[in-house]
Amino acid sequence: MEKTRQFLRHLGLPEGDCYHLPSSDKRFDDGGQYRFEVPGIQGPAAMRALLTELDNQQIHIHRVTQTKGIMSLTDEEIETMVALATHHHVELVLAIGPRATTDTSASANTPEGQRMGYRLRGQEQIIRAVEDVKRAASLGCRSFLVYDEGCLWLLNEARKAGEIPADCTFKVSAHCGHGNPCSAKLLEQIGANSLNPVRDIQLQMLAALRQAIDIPLDIHTENPASTGGFIRHYEVPEMIRVAAPIYLKTGGSVAKTHSWDTSEAEARARAKQVVLVKRMIDQYYPEAIWSETKKERPKR
Fold first, then answer.
1. Model confidence over 4-49: pLDDT tens digits?
2. Are 238 and 21 in contact (CB under 8 A)?
3. Which residue segments constitute the domains of the chain, with CATH numbers given?
4. At what angle do helices 181-189 and 149-161 cross, to 10 degrees?
5. The whole model's pTM is what?
6. HEC profile of 92-124
7. Angstrom distance (rounded) from CA 117 to CA 241
8. Residues 6 or more apart whose Cβ sits within 8 Å of residue 187
9. CA nearest 178: which of 208, 201, 202, 150?
10. Other beta carbons within 10 Å of 256
11. Interval 150-164 mean pLDDT
């Protein structure tokens, strides 16, 4: 194995998982180590309830992520969510609508189909995915959740060519199933602005990912029942230390499934989860730097 490890070192990649858990010296542009992201906010009512409750708790987050898909929203709903994001100084991430689970193929709904994640089947679905992004971009959104590596590559090319706004950013979903430094490096090279690895990524694996890439990592601090239901709040201080810059994806345990249609009451419950995670950080890693910049476009 030593020759393989040596070759990885030659490529600038970690030679294995980092069991010694080195501290990351990488940061967001404002010097912060961590930011909060609340996923699963599917429409304006839930988004307003979440942000109002966070204001009441005097705690700010940096991202709100809609996971059900752009094609599930009306133009008015998108415009309202964009306006809410602007008013509260948060980044709004909208999910690309076409995905395996909404396609006409039955394979995604079988045990074997789980291997394809949410990836797209056929070039027409790729085209529809790009149209989803173009529509949301025309209504003011600039951040998108991507489920397919080929679609990511194409969107990056479209961004460079001016087919979509140059300030669009792309977040790779955990549903792509990536969890190693080589995959992370590839995704960074083809246009990812942040990466959400598999939800059960262990600390030594997370540390190795950070050694390989510079873009932020988006890590679940908790999960819906459909994706394990585990709550990792006590691990968060170490997640920050070894993986900065990091988005802490918090509030997922309130939902039963990934695309759960969060109610206003559940949105407030997600806000409470952010407060609970922040308490863990303040108690066990008080020197961690909470990014004060509420919204920032990643540089490319």
1. 999 999 999 999 999 999 999 999 999 999 999 999 999 999 999 9
2. yes
3. 21-104+120-284 (3.20.20.70)
4. 30
5. 0.93
6. EEEECCCCHHHCCCCHHHCCHHHHHCCCCCCHH
7. 30
8. 149, 152, 172, 178, 195
9. 201
10. 10
11. 98
